[in-house]
Amino acid sequence: MKRKICLLFVLFILNAFIFPGYLAGCIASPKYHIVRRGDTLYRISKLYGVSVEEIRKRNHLSPDDKIYPGQRLIIPQVGGVYHQVKEHQTLWRIAKTYYGGVTAEEIKRDVEKIMRANGLSSPEIKVGQKLFIPGATKVMEVEVPSELWSKEEAGPDEVESSQERPEEKELAEIKSDLCWPVKGEIIRYFEKGKFNGIDIAAPEGATIVAPADGEVYWEGLLSTYGRTLILYHKKEDLYTCYMHISVYLVRKGDQVKKGQPIARVGATGNVDLPCLHFEIRKGIDPVNPLDYLP
Fold it and tell me: Where is the HTH cro/C1-type domain (predicted)?
């Protein structure tokens, strides 16, 4: 009898104190969303990749119930897969692959969804990092532009022969002179005859710098590209073009130095989110900026 009582007491202790603590460590904590002014259930559902009906059901809301600022909503856990980051993969490319976003605004929303699911404060990721992709049903192969692999795949013979060509030597010298105009994610690449430059996504107001010494050749407004700035670099005999900018920091005729702030990133013209459309031209002919940037 005493043994039975002791056994019951032990089971009571395990059930009351130990098992709940053990289970709490094994079961994922629920995710919450604090309602802000302007939020709707539809917008919140798109933000987390769950349906409006699932949010209503989890929070015991009827179709007539309204949400209000400061309200805490439980967000139902969704399934997903883990994706291991490989070389040259970025959050932008990963989000586009898994969710199939078409417009820059859609892809940006999907990037933010992955960042929230993984507790990331910035879109910077590392090779080997494992990312949870909410809502995904299988691991997918993320396509990387061939331009990024071309240098690594070139053998010693190819490198040696390219160094012997005068145009390649000239290009190498120019590369050593130039710097990137802004830090950000390339969201569209140069396509000869189709797209004359590259688009670099960056925060609105980010500083754009001159990639080399030069002179402000032109500033003005273009219907598709918004506020535009063009520099001429005499030493390299190149024109560099900056579009969708929000603020000019230099004016026509100004002399600029490499690394000097010349403008700020914006969303003027026909774009969905802040970015810099950047072109390099030899005379009037556009060339691939990635061939000239370091």
Answer: 39-55
